[in-house]
Design a protein that fits this description.
- This protein is mostly beta strands.
- It has one helix and four strands; from the N terminus they run βαβββ.
- A four-stranded mixed β-sheet has the order 1-4-3-2, with helices on one face.
- Strand 3 and strand 4 form a beta hairpin.
Length: 84
């Protein structure tokens, strides 16, 4: 049995779309998948805000999770992709 690896990326979703589109256009076997939005208002956001985004980078499944205003984007998470 082979396990599927999934990376979870926490951050503010407003900053996530542009890098995901870049990865999908740059690396083979990379896609931006399902975007899940809030069905209604919630304490730190509004209806329609992005809650999670499913994506693949070089065949590795990832899920971006909206951490809200407490989790700002930083360099703590990065991709390292070996090339020829």
């Amino acid at each position: 049995m082979q396990w599927q690896r999934t990376l979870f990326v926490y951050g503010t979703m407003g900053m996530l779309r542009q890098p995901l589109v870049f990865y999908a256009e740059t690396f083979p076997d990379s896609t931006v998948g399902t975007v899940h939005r809030a069905p209604g208002d919630y304490p730190s956001g509004k209806k329609g805000d992005v809650l999670t985004v499913e994506f693949n980078v070089a065949g590795v499944s990832c899920i971006g999770i909206n951490g809200g205003p407490m989790f700002k984007h930083n360099e703590a998470f990065s991709f390292q992709i070996a090339t020829d």
